[in-house]
């Protein structure tokens, strides 16, 4: 009886305080305001209508507090006269505007924080990456539309032609009643496989159908529109998106980046009770999201069940008007009794805003549905060698509607089903054909004629000191010709030297899934010393530029080679090559000693060489294009390393030289959180033995005026320095707007600051200094020792540093570079360079 009395007394001593928080002056409710009892941890957040309810043991001496960012806090003493009435707490707008306002009491904290801490505590168990292995079926539907079509845009001839081609279809309209124009649509059926330690993920494309008014490379595009390219794991602190590093709303540093609001009522999703938490960035310049996430309660270990987010509009991202991400997870029972969570559904919508008044908007919509989950049944490790694989019949019978009807998780509407036909109709119009053809030439560098393609276009013409006007025509085959064999070749003619140059290559792909091939080539062509030392990341456009200008140290080369290339395991590629070379220097050159009586000689070099190169880079992702070459399309923070060895073998097929060389390279695109992105290339090399002058190392200078090349030393002439051991670092750091974003006027322009640093150490040993080599004399030119290649002082590096601004008018980049060492009367010690490129 006594116990019952005590229990009753305790129960009836509980007091519930109810009320509403409103804005002073307007009397509008203030949702999600913090309301708590001063000096205690008892508190809550107001509802959407500003209402709150707090239960306490006693009101004596208690004060209730209401706070909200941007308002002055208000307090009210609790008395017997007011505790049983509806309390009205009025918040007055703060007269001081701060960049960031954080209001705290001594003991009170945001109720969402406790849940965020529980998420971190259980993150490893809930993370999909904690599974030993998994696999599932995936269906991906991708669509690209042109919307918000205004009258100016409609009047463009190509747009008018497309709209006319849609006359026999039911019109597809946007929310404003304006027509939308489908320009790309795809459906992909695939299987996703993952294995842990080391992490490897593979997508096998089983069937793919694509319609596009753009470039025609169904094989490469099919590998890029599967679900593995749209796979955001927000259990990671950050993830790559639009080539930038975005901060997860459940990052381990969540309090530094996000503000959270816990909704008072739980939400049931698929039978799981979830906490609903809204989040938004604390700083508008951060690459973060605004949205809502649903976190399972303690019964399901605070797992992420669903999140729905939009990109912060203030983020410095080109062209993007809006981004919407949505993921839903499903539980999978693990062998240890714990639960893993795999993505059941993923939606991704990005809208490209108006670039100019006469332009419309482009929207990309990707919907992914996954099912048939299997865990902890890994395949053999070599199964995961390639990130993306294509079944041999993936592009065969792709228009079988019965197949797609059976495979789709949800059926398409009538309008969605007609999209493929609409794109076909638009693609058949003459103007669209022309634009698509030009676009294909720009992206591929070749003009396609069925199974044969002419090009590369950047090599069609060049002007240099040896040939003057060089004209070249080349070809290559594509996968319409064969999926196993590929051929290419070229013929070129110089109007000054009146010499024909030519070459050809054949490749046979032995295995695509485990990437192995053999090849053979022969060419008779003009070369220049230093190109052999080209950075392994050099782009074709820059290599074409090496055909231009003062060659300085040119030579003619006949080269026959055979090689074998194979991926030993995921990310680890080995190339072995044997070649026979005949070099005829076009510059005065004597292999041993000085010229006799100062009379130039031109020693022919004949050699047989063995070359082995190993490359390892787990974070670099390749796909195969229609020409049966692999193309790098994505990379993460992990570095790539390369090691190669070259040996010239004497007395084989008339060889008159021998040498050995080792080179190593390391490159990485490193995301440094909110501080930006550093991209660097670190290289080094050593020639152990005596080596002919044409095989010595010459740093890669930039021979193109005004145009910046990040793989070159831009203020160094090609052939300015020579050595047989060297180390170099080339780095560019992009601050991603974190500097210029803080200047109001510049922030509106969207400019981005970069820093540049290029350093090289080198030396030329005595054993390789005993050769006579002079630059080729230009017509009418006298010998000038300043044009000779010099050895670097091993104690003094060549250094150039710079800064620049990118994203001017969304595409222009301007860099200022200073050369800080090796100043000479003829050296270029300062330069302003330009580059062009579109990026988000």
Task: Describe what you observe in this structure.
This is Collagen-binding protein. With 840 residues, the protein is mainly beta. It has three domains: 14-108, Carboxypeptidase-like, regulatory domain (Immunoglobulin-like); 119-433, no CATH class; 445-777 and 791-836, Porin, CATH 2.40.160.50. Helices cover 12% and strands 44% of the residues. The chain has 13 helices and 46 strands. It has an 18-stranded antiparallel β-sheet that branches. Strands 9, 10, 11, 14, 15, 16, 17, 18, 19, 20, 21 and 22 form a twelve-stranded mixed β-sheet that branches. A hairpin with an 8-residue loop joins strand 18 and strand 19 (320-333). The longest helix has 16 residues, at 111-126. The chain starts with a helix and ends with a strand. The relative contact order is 0.08. Mean pLDDT is 83; it is low at 1-12, 96-106 and 533-537.
Précis, in short:
The protein is mostly beta strands and 840 residues long. The chain has 13 helices and 46 strands.
